[in-house]
Specification:
Strand order of the largest sheet: 1-28-27-26
Distance between the termini: 126 Å
Structural class: alpha+beta
Radius of gyration: 39 Å
Largest sheet: 4 strands, antiparallel
Number of strands: 28
Oligomer: single chain
Strand content: 25-35%
């Protein structure tokens, strides 16, 4: 089979045209022969010269289509029985076995089969030098340095180039990339800016597989979890669109502009449902809408991110949604990151808006640009915002359990590794991609890769863990491959991660309880002082209140140990002697005569 590929190029890309004309020969230089130079040379006789008669060959490399292999096993229980024998009846099978064993050719056939069977048994009994024979001894880990390399580069085909806003992997073994390009700078006017988005094949970075041509630029574009031909996108004008790549480069259906968002759609995600046709989207105007692709004109449900009663809700006071997070194992719950730095944990089954927005986390100083749950520990989630990355637990609402230091450059995106549970990635505005492994160290990144000089804006991990797609501000997407030690989990990683998350959550709970106790003491003190109650009564009532609120034994034990350490380390102050001279007189006060009378009465008694 001949495999051909045609390279096409426009005429204007060849440069200036070459024009040829007929002209006679010109003598540039002439070197006459000099017979005197022959004396300086010696003739060689005989002369040996070798000649290669074989044809000249050249070596070429060709990137062919990848072949995928699967290994399957078969459990062979019963077989080879005639149709008239019922395998469920023991008597019939025993009778048939006796009949076969009495046959003359049975022994000869079995002797022939024993030879091949003995060979298979000997192969199974061969020693495996990598087998771990002792379960209590940990195997020696293979030491491998963390490394990364750029596999492919996908560039924006439009001029001028645009920033990358969204990257999505296809569900068919993730062999394709859907990338959106959009300039979201407020009131920026770029001449001759296109609205195209591209779908790339991972193995072909020269030309996109398909060009999507919406009326307005797409901000986000997401593949369906099971159908590699269906996509949904959020547009810059607030509409959502449905795409079918089998039907061309235009959207199949669009939502009505009256029922869409007022601001650009910053996030869109598919929902795990029975029909497989539902998704939801969010925008910075403070709305979250649920859609059904069978009827995309109107949303099926809406939620306004204003923490008030439904009759008192106001869209001008709502929190602007910057990112969404959805876990298919918890179909009724989702999380939303806002421009105010607050993460809202929502439940779709709530009766009203306040019940739907149940838990709020004050995560960052600026907008939450990335939000994702851990693939194995769904109670723990990663947030990216301002200059730091934080890991939270749903049990601790006041503070994160693990956080990074503040970087010099702002963080723009982040994602967990789907295969190694302790690894997550972050991108920065100085073009550096950081790889964090919280099992090894938490103060600094395990590996930092300088991808480019421009701002890195988006990151999306491959389901196998080794490949990561990163997009920058100039419209270039880099496919980066990491070493195996950053993408493979060890045997005890899950146990160690569970212990670490539980330890950090317990520590934060103790600190939260201590803070609640201090706030309660301060509040009680202020309220009782306002009512005119003495300080002695306040101190008498505080222990009883503290025991009621602060009843955790582990917290009380930690508090006792803390105060004991302070007493041991605190130095004793030196004694102060008050010496009064005869010339000095005690300070006069209006109550001095009364105190003098009291002393006289005491002495008289």
């Amino acid at each position: 089979m001949d495999i051909t590929y045609t390279y096409q190029k426009k005429r204007r890309e060849f440069g200036r045209q070459c024009l040829f004309s007929d002209k006679g020969p010109d003598l540039i230089d002439n070197y006459p022969s000099n017979k005197k130079l022959m004396r300086e040379y010696i003739l060689r006789d005989p002369v040996h010269q070798s000649t290669l008669c074989a044809p000249i060959q050249a070596e070429h490399y060709l990137n062919t289509m990848r072949a995928e292999y699967t290994t399957c096993g078969m459990n062979h229980v019963e077989g080879g029985w005639p149709k008239d024998v019922n395998t469920a009846d023991e008597e019939q099978t025993k009778r048939y076995r006796r009949k076969i064993e009495k046959d003359e050719g049975f022994n000869h056939t079995m002797v022939q089969l024993f030879k091949s069977m003995e060979n298979c048994i000997q192969q199974n009994n061969a020693i495996n030098i990598y087998q771990q024979y002792f379960s209590d001894v940990e195997p020696t880990p293979l030491v491998e340095r963390s490394s990364a390399r750029t596999v492919n580069v996908y560039q924006d085909q439009s001029t001028p180039t645009r920033p990358i806003n969204w990257i999505s992997w296809s569900p068919d073994n993730q062999t394709k990339l859907a990338i959106t390009y959009c300039n979201l700078k407020f009131q920026s006017i770029v001449p001759k800016e296109t609205t195209f988005s591209y779908i790339w094949e991972v193995e072909n970075p020269n030309r996109p597989l398909l060009t999507l041509k919406p009326e307005y630029p797409s901000v986000c574009l997401e593949y369906h979890q099971k159908d590699p031909h269906s996509l949904v996108s959020g547009q810059r004008n607030g509409q959502v669109a449905l795409w079918d790549i089998r039907k061309g480069y235009e959207p199949v259906e669009l939502s009505q502009i009256e029922n869409s968002f007022r601001d650009p759609v910053y996030s869109v995600l598919w929902i795990h449902s029975k029909s497989g046709c539902e998704f939801f989207s969010a925008s910075t105007d403070g709305q979250i809408k649920w859609w059904d692709i069978r009827k995309l004109s109107n949303p099926t449900e809406s939620l306004l991110l204003d923490y008030a009663k439904e009759e008192e809700q106001d869209i001008s006071k709502a929190l602007g949604a910057s990112c969404l997070e959805y876990e298919s194992t918890i179909p009724t719950r989702f999380m939303c990151g806002t421009e105010e730095g607050i993460v809202v944990s929502c439940n779709r089954k709530g009766k009203n808006a306040m019940e739907k927005m149940g838990v709020r986390f004050k995560a960052h100083l600026g907008p939450v640009v990335a939000l994702q749950r851990n693939p194995a520990f769904v109670k723990n989630f990663l947030t990216i915002g301002d200059w730091s990355a934080k890991i939270w637990s749903e049990d601790c609402r006041e503070s994160s359990i693990i956080w990074s230091g503040f970087h010099r450059a702002m963080l723009t995106d982040g994602a967990w590794s789907p295969t190694r549970l302790s690894v997550f990635f972050t991108t920065r505005t100085d073009g550096i991609l950081d790889v964090w492994d919280i099992m090894q160290q938490q103060k600094q990144a395990s590996l930092s890769v300088k991808v480019c000089d421009e701002k890195l804006l988006r990151i999306r991990t491959h389901e196998m863990g080794r490949l990561v797609a990163v997009g920058n501000q100039k419209g270039t997407t880099y496919l980066i491959e990491f070493s195996e030690n950053l993408s493979t989990s060890n045997k005890n990683d899950k146990v160690l991660m569970t212990a670490m998350f539980e330890r950090e959550s317990r520590r934060e709970k103790i600190l939260e309880a201590r803070n609640r106790e201090l706030r309660l003491k301060q509040k009680t003190k202020q309220s009782q002082q306002a009512e005119g109650i003495d300080e002695e009564q306040i101190q008498e009532n505080l222990p009883a209140l503290t025991e009621q609120v602060f009843a955790d034994t582990a917290v009380q034990r930690a508090e006792i140990e803390f105060y004991q350490m302070i007493k041991e380390k605190k130095p004793e102050p030196p004694p102060v002697q008050n010496v009064q001279t005869a010339t000095e007189s005690p300070p006069s006060s209006p109550t001095a005569p009364e105190e003098h009378k009291k002393e006289k009465k005491k002495t008289g008694k």
